[in-house]
Amino acid sequence: YEISECLVGSEMCIRDSKESNFRFLFTKIFLLLYVTDDWSESIPLFHCQSSIINYQLNNAMAKTKEQLLNILDQFQLTEKVVSAEPFGNGHINDTLKVTNEKGEIKYVLQRINHLIFTNVDMLQNNIQIVTSHIRKKLEEKGESDIDRKVLTFLPTKDNKLYYFDGDSYWRVCLFIPNSKSYEEVNPELSYEAGKAFGDFQSMLADIPEGTLGETIPNFHNMEFRLEQFHDAVKSNVAGRLDEVKDLIEEIEKRAEAMCIQERLYREGKLKKRTNHCDTKVNNMMFDAETDKVLCVIDLDTVMPGFVLSDIGDFIRTGANTGAEDDENLDNVNVNMDIFKAYTRGYMEKAKSFLTPTEIKLLPYGGRLLTYMQTVRFLTDYINGDTYYKIHSPKHNLIRTKAQFKLLQSLEAHADEMDAFMSEWL
Ligand code: ADP
Ligand code: GN1
Ligand code: MG
Predict the structure, then answer these.
(1) 3-state SS assignment for residue 217
(2) Which of 76, 78, 163, 320 is the most exposed place for a label (fewest CB within 10 A)?
(3) Cα atoms in the 13 Å half-sphere on the side-chain side of 81
(4) How far apart are CA 185 and CA 409, in angstroms?
Protein backbone atom coordinates (compact mmCIF):
# COMPACT_ATOMS: atom_id res chain seq x y z
CA TYR A 1 0.00 0.00 0.00
CA GLU A 2 1.08 3.45 -0.74
CA ILE A 3 0.69 5.44 2.41
CA SER A 4 -1.12 8.70 2.03
CA GLU A 5 -1.90 9.54 5.62
CA CYS A 6 -0.90 8.22 8.99
CA LEU A 7 -2.38 8.77 12.41
CA VAL A 8 -1.65 7.34 15.79
CA GLY A 9 -4.44 6.32 18.08
CA SER A 10 -4.89 3.14 20.05
CA GLU A 11 -3.53 1.46 16.93
CA MET A 12 -1.41 2.72 14.13
CA CYS A 13 -3.73 3.69 11.32
CA ILE A 14 -2.60 3.75 7.77
CA ARG A 15 -4.76 4.94 4.97
CA ASP A 16 -4.59 2.99 1.78
CA SER A 17 -4.33 5.64 -0.88
CA LYS A 18 -6.47 3.71 -3.35
CA GLU A 19 -9.46 3.30 -1.07
CA SER A 20 -10.96 5.42 1.61
CA ASN A 21 -10.60 2.65 4.20
CA PHE A 22 -8.10 2.69 6.97
CA ARG A 23 -6.21 -0.51 7.42
CA PHE A 24 -3.91 -1.34 10.24
CA LEU A 25 -0.66 -3.08 10.80
CA PHE A 26 -1.21 -5.81 13.28
CA THR A 27 2.17 -7.38 13.76
CA LYS A 28 5.33 -5.88 15.10
CA ILE A 29 5.51 -2.23 14.39
CA PHE A 30 8.50 -0.34 15.63
CA LEU A 31 7.12 3.06 16.05
CA LEU A 32 9.17 6.16 16.27
CA LEU A 33 7.08 9.15 17.03
CA TYR A 34 8.18 12.74 16.92
CA VAL A 35 5.82 14.06 19.56
CA THR A 36 4.58 17.58 19.50
CA ASP A 37 2.20 19.16 21.99
CA ASP A 38 -0.79 18.29 19.90
CA TRP A 39 -0.71 14.55 19.17
CA SER A 40 -2.48 14.94 15.87
CA GLU A 41 0.39 17.09 14.67
CA SER A 42 2.99 14.56 15.77
CA ILE A 43 5.12 13.03 13.09
CA PRO A 44 5.21 9.26 13.20
CA LEU A 45 8.25 7.60 11.68
CA PHE A 46 7.91 3.86 11.65
CA HIS A 47 9.53 0.71 10.56
CA CYS A 48 7.18 -2.15 9.78
CA GLN A 49 8.47 -5.63 10.55
CA SER A 50 5.81 -7.76 9.03
CA SER A 51 2.91 -8.00 6.67
CA ILE A 52 0.00 -5.62 6.44
CA ILE A 53 -3.23 -7.35 7.28
CA ASN A 54 -6.07 -6.70 5.03
CA TYR A 55 -8.99 -5.82 7.12
CA GLN A 56 -10.89 -2.68 7.59
CA LEU A 57 -10.29 -0.59 10.63
CA ASN A 58 -13.49 0.92 11.79
CA ASN A 59 -11.90 3.16 14.31
CA ALA A 60 -12.95 6.68 15.17
CA MET A 61 -9.34 7.55 15.87
CA ALA A 62 -8.91 7.46 12.12
CA LYS A 63 -10.31 10.99 12.37
CA THR A 64 -7.99 13.82 13.29
CA LYS A 65 -8.57 15.72 16.49
CA GLU A 66 -9.71 18.69 14.45
CA GLN A 67 -12.27 16.57 12.61
CA LEU A 68 -13.57 15.16 15.90
CA LEU A 69 -13.94 18.64 17.38
CA ASN A 70 -15.75 19.73 14.27
CA ILE A 71 -18.15 16.80 14.64
CA LEU A 72 -18.75 17.75 18.28
CA ASP A 73 -19.42 21.30 17.20
CA GLN A 74 -22.48 20.08 15.30
CA PHE A 75 -24.20 19.22 18.59
CA GLN A 76 -25.90 21.46 21.13
CA LEU A 77 -23.16 21.26 23.75
CA THR A 78 -23.20 23.58 26.73
CA GLU A 79 -19.47 23.29 27.42
CA LYS A 80 -16.44 24.19 25.35
CA VAL A 81 -14.67 20.92 24.62
CA VAL A 82 -11.03 20.40 23.73
CA SER A 83 -10.42 16.68 23.18
CA ALA A 84 -12.03 13.35 22.32
CA GLU A 85 -10.19 10.16 23.18
CA PRO A 86 -10.95 6.41 22.96
CA PHE A 87 -13.05 4.97 25.75
CA GLY A 88 -14.51 1.54 26.50
CA ASN A 89 -13.84 -1.67 24.64
CA GLY A 90 -16.97 -2.46 22.68
CA HIS A 91 -16.77 -4.73 19.67
CA ILE A 92 -19.03 -2.72 17.36
CA ASN A 93 -19.20 1.07 17.76
CA ASP A 94 -16.37 3.47 18.55
CA THR A 95 -16.68 5.28 21.86
CA LEU A 96 -14.77 8.42 22.85
CA LYS A 97 -14.69 10.49 26.02
CA VAL A 98 -14.86 14.22 25.50
CA THR A 99 -13.19 16.63 27.88
CA ASN A 100 -13.49 20.34 28.55
CA GLU A 101 -10.71 22.86 29.10
CA LYS A 102 -10.35 21.86 32.75
CA GLY A 103 -9.74 18.26 31.71
CA GLU A 104 -13.14 17.10 33.03
CA ILE A 105 -14.96 14.45 31.00
CA LYS A 106 -18.28 15.96 29.98
CA TYR A 107 -19.64 13.98 27.06
CA VAL A 108 -19.44 10.62 25.36
CA LEU A 109 -19.12 10.72 21.57
CA GLN A 110 -19.90 7.57 19.63
CA ARG A 111 -19.50 6.65 16.05
CA ILE A 112 -22.31 4.27 15.15
CA ASN A 113 -21.28 1.26 13.12
CA HIS A 114 -23.77 1.73 10.31
CA LEU A 115 -22.62 -1.42 8.52
CA ILE A 116 -24.24 -3.26 11.43
CA PHE A 117 -26.94 -0.80 12.50
CA THR A 118 -28.07 -0.11 8.97
CA ASN A 119 -31.13 1.93 9.94
CA VAL A 120 -29.62 4.72 12.04
CA ASP A 121 -32.89 6.65 12.06
CA MET A 122 -34.67 3.70 13.65
CA LEU A 123 -31.78 3.12 16.04
CA GLN A 124 -31.69 6.66 17.40
CA ASN A 125 -35.46 6.91 17.44
CA ASN A 126 -35.63 3.73 19.57
CA ILE A 127 -33.06 5.13 21.97
CA GLN A 128 -34.99 8.38 22.22
CA ILE A 129 -38.21 6.49 23.05
CA VAL A 130 -36.47 4.31 25.63
CA THR A 131 -34.63 7.13 27.40
CA SER A 132 -37.64 9.43 27.55
CA HIS A 133 -39.83 6.55 28.78
CA ILE A 134 -37.39 5.77 31.59
CA ARG A 135 -36.99 9.46 32.42
CA LYS A 136 -40.77 9.78 32.78
CA LYS A 137 -40.94 6.72 35.04
CA LEU A 138 -38.16 8.11 37.25
CA GLU A 139 -39.92 11.48 37.47
CA GLU A 140 -43.20 9.77 38.42
CA LYS A 141 -41.38 7.89 41.19
CA GLY A 142 -40.04 11.23 42.46
CA GLU A 143 -36.40 10.19 41.96
CA SER A 144 -33.65 12.78 42.31
CA ASP A 145 -30.43 13.02 40.27
CA ILE A 146 -32.23 11.76 37.16
CA ASP A 147 -29.45 12.85 34.75
CA ARG A 148 -27.26 10.17 36.31
CA LYS A 149 -29.98 7.50 36.15
CA VAL A 150 -30.83 7.61 32.48
CA LEU A 151 -28.73 8.51 29.46
CA THR A 152 -29.30 11.96 27.98
CA PHE A 153 -28.54 12.29 24.27
CA LEU A 154 -27.95 15.75 22.88
CA PRO A 155 -29.58 16.97 19.68
CA THR A 156 -27.57 18.45 16.85
CA LYS A 157 -27.82 22.16 16.11
CA ASP A 158 -30.48 21.35 13.53
CA ASN A 159 -32.36 19.26 16.12
CA LYS A 160 -31.53 15.83 14.80
CA LEU A 161 -30.70 12.81 16.94
CA TYR A 162 -27.41 12.13 15.17
CA TYR A 163 -24.96 13.80 12.80
CA PHE A 164 -23.77 12.37 9.50
CA ASP A 165 -20.38 13.73 8.39
CA GLY A 166 -20.39 12.25 4.91
CA ASP A 167 -18.99 8.86 5.91
CA SER A 168 -19.97 8.17 9.52
CA TYR A 169 -22.89 8.64 11.89
CA TRP A 170 -22.24 10.26 15.27
CA ARG A 171 -24.15 10.78 18.51
CA VAL A 172 -23.34 12.48 21.79
CA CYS A 173 -24.62 11.86 25.30
CA LEU A 174 -23.85 13.36 28.68
CA PHE A 175 -21.07 11.69 30.59
CA ILE A 176 -22.36 10.40 33.91
CA PRO A 177 -20.12 11.96 36.57
CA ASN A 178 -18.80 10.00 39.56
CA SER A 179 -19.69 6.72 37.98
CA LYS A 180 -17.80 3.61 36.97
CA SER A 181 -18.40 0.41 35.08
CA TYR A 182 -16.88 -2.95 35.90
CA GLU A 183 -15.38 -5.64 33.70
CA GLU A 184 -15.59 -8.09 36.59
CA VAL A 185 -18.09 -8.21 39.43
CA ASN A 186 -18.48 -9.82 42.84
CA PRO A 187 -21.77 -11.30 44.12
CA GLU A 188 -22.84 -8.02 45.80
CA LEU A 189 -22.47 -6.05 42.57
CA SER A 190 -24.19 -8.85 40.61
CA TYR A 191 -27.16 -8.71 42.92
CA GLU A 192 -27.41 -4.95 42.26
CA ALA A 193 -27.02 -5.55 38.52
CA GLY A 194 -29.77 -8.19 38.57
CA LYS A 195 -32.16 -5.75 40.22
CA ALA A 196 -31.21 -3.02 37.76
CA PHE A 197 -31.80 -5.11 34.63
CA GLY A 198 -35.05 -6.45 36.13
CA ASP A 199 -36.13 -2.88 36.82
CA PHE A 200 -35.10 -1.86 33.32
CA GLN A 201 -37.31 -4.54 31.76
CA SER A 202 -40.17 -3.74 34.04
CA MET A 203 -39.98 0.03 33.31
CA LEU A 204 -40.14 -0.73 29.58
CA ALA A 205 -42.88 -3.37 29.83
CA ASP A 206 -45.66 -0.91 28.98
CA ILE A 207 -44.13 0.39 25.76
CA PRO A 208 -46.84 -0.61 23.28
CA GLU A 209 -46.01 -3.42 20.89
CA GLY A 210 -44.78 -2.12 17.56
CA THR A 211 -43.32 1.10 19.03
CA LEU A 212 -39.70 -0.05 18.99
CA GLY A 213 -38.17 -1.35 15.80
CA GLU A 214 -35.78 -4.31 15.58
CA THR A 215 -32.48 -2.44 15.12
CA ILE A 216 -30.86 -5.69 14.03
CA PRO A 217 -33.55 -8.04 12.76
CA ASN A 218 -33.53 -11.50 14.39
CA PHE A 219 -30.74 -10.33 16.67
CA HIS A 220 -31.13 -13.05 19.31
CA ASN A 221 -33.02 -15.53 17.19
CA MET A 222 -31.05 -18.76 17.57
CA GLU A 223 -32.53 -20.41 14.50
CA PHE A 224 -31.44 -17.42 12.42
CA ARG A 225 -27.93 -17.39 13.94
CA LEU A 226 -27.58 -21.08 13.05
CA GLU A 227 -28.67 -20.34 9.48
CA GLN A 228 -25.94 -17.70 9.23
CA PHE A 229 -23.49 -20.21 10.69
CA HIS A 230 -24.48 -22.88 8.15
CA ASP A 231 -24.12 -20.37 5.31
CA ALA A 232 -20.64 -19.48 6.53
CA VAL A 233 -19.63 -23.14 6.75
CA LYS A 234 -20.97 -23.78 3.26
CA SER A 235 -19.12 -20.85 1.70
CA ASN A 236 -15.88 -21.23 3.68
CA VAL A 237 -14.70 -17.95 2.15
CA ALA A 238 -11.63 -17.61 4.34
CA GLY A 239 -10.62 -21.29 3.96
CA ARG A 240 -10.63 -21.80 7.72
CA LEU A 241 -12.95 -24.81 8.04
CA ASP A 242 -10.34 -27.51 8.61
CA GLU A 243 -9.10 -25.75 11.67
CA VAL A 244 -12.53 -25.60 13.32
CA LYS A 245 -14.06 -29.00 12.49
CA ASP A 246 -14.32 -30.08 16.14
CA LEU A 247 -16.03 -26.87 17.16
CA ILE A 248 -18.52 -27.18 14.30
CA GLU A 249 -19.38 -30.66 15.50
CA GLU A 250 -19.97 -29.44 19.05
CA ILE A 251 -22.26 -26.71 17.74
CA GLU A 252 -24.27 -29.10 15.61
CA LYS A 253 -24.74 -31.52 18.53
CA ARG A 254 -26.53 -28.84 20.51
CA ALA A 255 -28.34 -27.00 17.72
CA GLU A 256 -31.82 -28.42 18.18
CA ALA A 257 -31.83 -28.13 21.96
CA MET A 258 -30.81 -24.48 21.71
CA CYS A 259 -33.85 -23.37 19.70
CA ILE A 260 -36.47 -23.93 22.42
CA GLN A 261 -37.52 -20.26 22.58
CA GLU A 262 -38.36 -20.04 18.88
CA ARG A 263 -40.38 -23.28 19.09
CA LEU A 264 -42.29 -22.21 22.20
CA TYR A 265 -43.03 -18.87 20.51
CA ARG A 266 -44.51 -20.61 17.46
CA GLU A 267 -46.63 -22.76 19.77
CA GLY A 268 -47.91 -19.62 21.50
CA LYS A 269 -46.25 -20.58 24.81
CA LEU A 270 -43.74 -17.74 24.96
CA LYS A 271 -44.22 -14.05 24.24
CA LYS A 272 -41.85 -11.31 23.22
CA ARG A 273 -40.94 -8.49 25.58
CA THR A 274 -38.77 -5.40 25.40
CA ASN A 275 -35.27 -6.48 26.31
CA HIS A 276 -31.90 -4.77 26.54
CA CYS A 277 -30.23 -7.59 24.54
CA ASP A 278 -26.67 -6.65 25.49
CA THR A 279 -26.57 -7.07 29.26
CA LYS A 280 -22.81 -7.37 29.33
CA VAL A 281 -21.43 -6.64 32.74
CA ASN A 282 -19.84 -3.36 31.56
CA ASN A 283 -23.10 -1.96 30.20
CA MET A 284 -24.15 -0.64 33.55
CA MET A 285 -22.86 2.38 35.45
CA PHE A 286 -22.38 2.18 39.21
CA ASP A 287 -22.06 5.11 41.60
CA ALA A 288 -18.33 5.54 42.24
CA GLU A 289 -18.89 6.05 45.96
CA THR A 290 -21.79 3.81 46.93
CA ASP A 291 -21.47 1.06 44.28
CA LYS A 292 -25.22 1.23 43.73
CA VAL A 293 -26.36 0.95 40.13
CA LEU A 294 -27.07 4.28 38.55
CA CYS A 295 -27.91 3.61 34.98
CA VAL A 296 -28.17 1.02 32.22
CA ILE A 297 -26.22 2.08 29.12
CA ASP A 298 -25.45 0.83 25.57
CA LEU A 299 -29.05 0.95 24.39
CA ASP A 300 -28.56 0.10 20.69
CA THR A 301 -30.17 -3.29 20.93
CA VAL A 302 -33.15 -2.51 23.17
CA MET A 303 -35.88 -4.21 21.17
CA PRO A 304 -38.59 -6.84 21.29
CA GLY A 305 -37.24 -10.32 21.89
CA PHE A 306 -37.23 -13.26 24.24
CA VAL A 307 -36.75 -12.66 27.93
CA LEU A 308 -33.79 -15.01 28.39
CA SER A 309 -31.49 -12.57 26.59
CA ASP A 310 -31.13 -10.32 29.58
CA ILE A 311 -30.28 -12.94 32.12
CA GLY A 312 -28.22 -14.92 29.64
CA ASP A 313 -25.76 -12.26 28.60
CA PHE A 314 -25.04 -11.19 32.15
CA ILE A 315 -24.30 -14.77 33.17
CA ARG A 316 -22.13 -15.14 30.08
CA THR A 317 -20.04 -12.09 30.99
CA GLY A 318 -20.48 -11.44 34.73
CA ALA A 319 -20.45 -15.05 35.97
CA ASN A 320 -17.44 -16.07 33.89
CA THR A 321 -14.34 -16.52 36.07
CA GLY A 322 -12.21 -15.75 33.00
CA ALA A 323 -12.35 -13.24 30.19
CA GLU A 324 -14.57 -13.46 27.12
CA ASP A 325 -11.41 -14.09 25.09
CA ASP A 326 -9.32 -15.88 27.68
CA GLU A 327 -6.57 -17.93 26.08
CA ASN A 328 -6.09 -19.92 29.26
CA LEU A 329 -9.22 -22.06 29.29
CA ASP A 330 -8.52 -23.15 32.86
CA ASN A 331 -9.50 -19.63 33.87
CA VAL A 332 -12.94 -20.00 32.29
CA ASN A 333 -15.72 -21.42 34.46
CA VAL A 334 -19.06 -20.36 35.82
CA ASN A 335 -19.05 -18.65 39.20
CA MET A 336 -22.19 -20.01 40.87
CA ASP A 337 -22.27 -17.32 43.56
CA ILE A 338 -22.51 -14.67 40.87
CA PHE A 339 -25.19 -16.60 39.00
CA LYS A 340 -27.21 -16.92 42.20
CA ALA A 341 -26.76 -13.30 43.24
CA TYR A 342 -27.74 -11.94 39.82
CA THR A 343 -30.73 -14.25 39.59
CA ARG A 344 -31.89 -13.30 43.07
CA GLY A 345 -31.69 -9.58 42.24
CA TYR A 346 -33.34 -10.03 38.87
CA MET A 347 -36.17 -12.17 40.27
CA GLU A 348 -36.89 -9.59 42.96
CA LYS A 349 -37.84 -7.15 40.22
CA ALA A 350 -39.03 -9.47 37.47
CA LYS A 351 -41.00 -12.23 39.17
CA SER A 352 -44.19 -10.21 39.03
CA PHE A 353 -44.25 -10.22 35.24
CA LEU A 354 -42.46 -13.46 34.29
CA THR A 355 -44.47 -16.57 33.44
CA PRO A 356 -43.58 -19.94 35.08
CA THR A 357 -42.22 -21.11 31.70
CA GLU A 358 -39.85 -18.15 31.57
CA ILE A 359 -38.75 -18.61 35.18
CA LYS A 360 -38.03 -22.28 34.63
CA LEU A 361 -35.95 -21.44 31.56
CA LEU A 362 -33.73 -18.79 33.18
CA PRO A 363 -30.66 -21.05 33.75
CA TYR A 364 -31.07 -22.30 30.19
CA GLY A 365 -30.77 -18.60 29.22
CA GLY A 366 -27.15 -18.57 30.42
CA ARG A 367 -26.35 -21.60 28.29
CA LEU A 368 -28.28 -20.26 25.32
CA LEU A 369 -26.58 -16.87 25.19
CA THR A 370 -23.17 -18.47 25.68
CA TYR A 371 -23.91 -20.97 22.91
CA MET A 372 -25.20 -18.14 20.69
CA GLN A 373 -22.03 -16.16 21.26
CA THR A 374 -19.91 -19.24 20.47
CA VAL A 375 -21.82 -19.59 17.21
CA ARG A 376 -21.55 -15.87 16.39
CA PHE A 377 -17.80 -15.64 17.06
CA LEU A 378 -17.13 -18.82 15.10
CA THR A 379 -19.32 -17.66 12.20
CA ASP A 380 -17.30 -14.45 12.06
CA TYR A 381 -14.03 -16.36 12.17
CA ILE A 382 -15.15 -18.61 9.32
CA ASN A 383 -16.31 -15.56 7.35
CA GLY A 384 -12.87 -13.97 7.69
CA ASP A 385 -13.63 -11.51 10.54
CA THR A 386 -16.11 -9.14 9.01
CA TYR A 387 -18.30 -8.31 12.02
CA TYR A 388 -16.51 -7.98 15.37
CA LYS A 389 -13.49 -5.76 15.89
CA ILE A 390 -10.50 -8.03 16.40
CA HIS A 391 -7.16 -7.29 18.01
CA SER A 392 -5.19 -10.24 16.63
CA PRO A 393 -5.67 -12.50 13.60
CA LYS A 394 -7.09 -15.42 15.61
CA HIS A 395 -9.08 -13.31 18.04
CA ASN A 396 -12.48 -14.64 16.98
CA LEU A 397 -11.23 -18.22 17.28
CA ILE A 398 -9.80 -17.53 20.72
CA ARG A 399 -13.13 -15.99 21.72
CA THR A 400 -15.01 -18.99 20.34
CA LYS A 401 -12.94 -21.44 22.35
CA ALA A 402 -13.34 -19.44 25.56
CA GLN A 403 -17.12 -19.18 25.08
CA PHE A 404 -17.35 -22.90 24.35
CA LYS A 405 -15.41 -23.71 27.52
CA LEU A 406 -17.83 -21.54 29.48
CA LEU A 407 -20.75 -23.34 27.86
CA GLN A 408 -19.34 -26.69 29.01
CA SER A 409 -19.01 -25.36 32.53
CA LEU A 410 -22.60 -24.06 32.48
CA GLU A 411 -23.77 -27.46 31.22
CA ALA A 412 -21.96 -29.15 34.09
CA HIS A 413 -23.80 -26.89 36.55
CA ALA A 414 -27.22 -27.09 34.88
CA ASP A 415 -28.87 -29.26 37.55
CA GLU A 416 -27.59 -27.08 40.37
CA MET A 417 -28.91 -23.98 38.59
CA ASP A 418 -32.30 -25.56 37.93
CA ALA A 419 -32.57 -26.58 41.59
CA PHE A 420 -31.83 -22.99 42.60
CA MET A 421 -34.84 -21.78 40.61
CA SER A 422 -37.27 -24.00 42.56
CA GLU A 423 -37.62 -21.21 45.13
CA TRP A 424 -39.65 -19.22 42.55
CA LEU A 425 -41.64 -22.06 41.00
P1 ADP B 1 -19.41 0.14 23.61
O2 ADP B 1 -19.58 -1.03 24.54
O3 ADP B 1 -20.17 -0.06 22.35
O4 ADP B 1 -18.00 0.57 23.40
P5 ADP B 1 -20.73 1.76 25.64
O6 ADP B 1 -21.88 2.69 25.39
O7 ADP B 1 -21.02 0.53 26.41
O8 ADP B 1 -20.07 1.44 24.24
O9 ADP B 1 -19.58 2.58 26.35
C10 ADP B 1 -18.31 2.02 26.63
C11 ADP B 1 -17.88 2.35 28.07
O12 ADP B 1 -17.84 3.77 28.22
C13 ADP B 1 -18.86 1.86 29.14
O14 ADP B 1 -18.56 0.55 29.56
C15 ADP B 1 -18.68 2.90 30.23
O16 ADP B 1 -17.60 2.55 31.06
C17 ADP B 1 -18.34 4.18 29.49
N18 ADP B 1 -19.52 5.02 29.26
C19 ADP B 1 -20.36 4.98 28.21
N20 ADP B 1 -21.33 5.90 28.29
C21 ADP B 1 -21.08 6.57 29.42
C22 ADP B 1 -21.70 7.68 30.07
N23 ADP B 1 -22.78 8.28 29.55
N24 ADP B 1 -21.17 8.14 31.22
C25 ADP B 1 -20.07 7.55 31.76
N26 ADP B 1 -19.43 6.52 31.19
C27 ADP B 1 -19.92 6.02 30.05
C1 GN1 C 1 -21.15 -6.83 20.84
O2 GN1 C 1 -20.65 -3.73 21.14
P3 GN1 C 1 -20.66 -4.64 22.31
O4 GN1 C 1 -19.28 -5.08 22.64
O5 GN1 C 1 -21.43 -4.11 23.49
C6 GN1 C 1 -22.43 -7.39 20.21
C7 GN1 C 1 -23.16 -8.24 21.25
C8 GN1 C 1 -22.26 -9.38 21.67
C9 GN1 C 1 -20.96 -8.79 22.22
C10 GN1 C 1 -19.97 -9.88 22.56
C11 GN1 C 1 -24.63 -5.19 18.12
O12 GN1 C 1 -21.49 -5.97 21.89
O13 GN1 C 1 -24.33 -8.78 20.68
O14 GN1 C 1 -22.89 -10.15 22.65
O15 GN1 C 1 -20.33 -7.90 21.28
N16 GN1 C 1 -23.28 -6.31 19.75
C17 GN1 C 1 -23.82 -6.36 18.51
O18 GN1 C 1 -19.04 -9.39 23.45
O19 GN1 C 1 -23.68 -7.31 17.76
MG1 MG D 1 -20.87 -1.50 26.03
Answers:
(1) coil
(2) 78
(3) 29
(4) 19
Whether residue 269 contacts residue 306, with contact meaning beta carbons closer than 8 Å, is answered with no
pLDDT tens string 356-386: 999 999 999 999 999 999 999 999 999 988 8
State if pTM tops 0.85. Answer: yes
* 145 Cα–ligand 3 center, Å: 22
| pLDDT tens-digit map of 26-77 | 333 334 444 455 545 544 444 333 223 323 334 555 788 889 999 999 999 9
What's the 89 CA to ligand 1 centre distance in angstroms? 9
Residue 63, CA distances (Å) to 7, 35, 80, 245, 287 in order: 8, 18, 20, 40, 32
Taking residue 301's Cβ as centre, other Cβ atoms within 10 Å add up to 23
Q: Which of 280, 374, 406 to mutate to test the pocket of ligand 2 (most atoms within 8 A of CB)?
A: 280
Q: How far is CA 283 from the centre of its chain?
A: 7
Cα 320-112-146 angle, rounded to 5 deg: 75
